[in-house]
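quick one, 162 residues, struct below
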Amino acid sequence: MQSLAKASQEVGAVSRLEIVTAELERIRLANGGLLSTEAVVAMAKEPESVLHEHFEWNNVKAGHLYRLWQARRLIQMVTMPGIDSGKEARVYLSLVPDRGADGGYRSINDILGNRDLRAQMLQQAISEFDRWQERHKNLLELVGVFESMEDVKKTARNEKLS
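---
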């Protein structure tokens, strides 16, 4: 199984990415304009498909990977009332440095109670927001949200410097 991210780092990856994109677009159009995961997997099952190599076809490995995904979903479902807002918030979070082969999740209380972990969490939130903003930058209704986040970024930079 090869990810597109890894494939895009290889020589000729632009053309491979274009081929995969064209195939996904073909599937979308063949399904009335909606690209479904079921249709993608059905097409990828064919060994000749350009999508085939991007999936794990060994059922033992795929089963284990799926159970890991289920464990992540289970961990993410655990919530408690938020400290400031009272709204439901996740109890366990995965910080970027904790991800990887032996990675895991930390208690939100442990993160918020540790200056370095809290700074990591804030930086991660800013990075996630930047990606979200990139996806939604064409929605003029969100300009105020984007501007407010700039204030948060400035505050975070100033706290880093002090």
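The chain is about 60% helix and 5% strand.
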